[in-house]
Amino acid sequence: MYRRILAPIDGSITSSHALEEALRFARANDALLQPLFIVDLQPVAYDSAATFYPDMRDALLEEGRRLTKDAAARMEREGVKGSPRVAEVGLIGDDIAQCILRCGEDFGAELVVMGTHGRRGWQRLMLGSVAERFMRLARCPVMLVPGREAEQQAREREQAEQIAG
Q1: 71: domain CATH number?
Q2: With contact defined as beta carbons under 8 Å apart, do 153 and 117 qualify?
Q3: Is 8 helix (H, G, I), strand (E, B) or coil?
Q4: Among positive and negative, which fits the CA dihedral 101, 107, 112, 113?
Q5: CA geometry: angle at 10 spanning 15 and 103, to 5°?
Q6: What is the spatial distance between Cα 66 and Cα 86, in angstroms, rounded to a whole number?
Q7: Which of 32, 54, 56, 104 could bridge to 82 as Cys pair (CB 3.0-4.6 Å)?
């Protein structure tokens, strides 16, 4: 089966849910897993707000270190081998999907497991979809894990905590 699995993570509930699936799949197949956090400064690079966040790159790198450390701990608990990675989108002509592709090729990924928010209509048109773009570029199988259930469960937990607290 698949021996090298890449799992892009971004800190969202959907991403966490996809990492959980990647962990299960890696454990069942004794595969190497590489959780991947992408630092993308492009949305703010040309925005006037960027001048107010001179340490944005450092903050994003720190977030990546935090998330990959958490992913490594989850891997250790589950007995899954591999190591997380933090990568940056190139400044010219690169986007998150292309960066995932490049990192997957570097890792020799045979499968990519990633979350998808399942946006439709205007939301998808305006926001785009990293998962959809990556699917068009991918050179290996991709497992998309829908996040609707995970997001709904998180909302329900928050509501329960507000009522209880």
Answers
A1: 3.40.50.620
A2: no
A3: strand
A4: negative
A5: 100
A6: 10
A7: 32
Range of the domain at 128: 4-164
pLDDT of res. 66? 97
From the centroid of its chain, how far is CA 145?
A: 11
> Residue 91: its pLDDT value, please?
72
User: How far are the Cα atoms of 100, 111, 120 from residue 9, in angstroms, in the given order?
Assistant: 10, 15, 21
Q: Mean pLDDT across the stretch 94-123?
A: 85
* Percent of the chain whose pLDDT exceeds 90: 55
The HSE-up count of residue 97 (CA atoms within 13 Å, CB side) is 15
Q: Under a CB-based contact definition with an 8 Å cutoff, are residues 147 and 114 in contact?
A: no
Q: Look at residue 92 and tell me whether its pLDDT is greater than 80.
A: no
Scanning the structure block, which residue is given the tokens 């899954």? Answer: 80
Give me the number of domains the chain comprises: 1
DSSP H helical segments within the chain, as ranges? 13-29, 42-45, 56-78, 96-107, 121-127, 130-137, 148-164
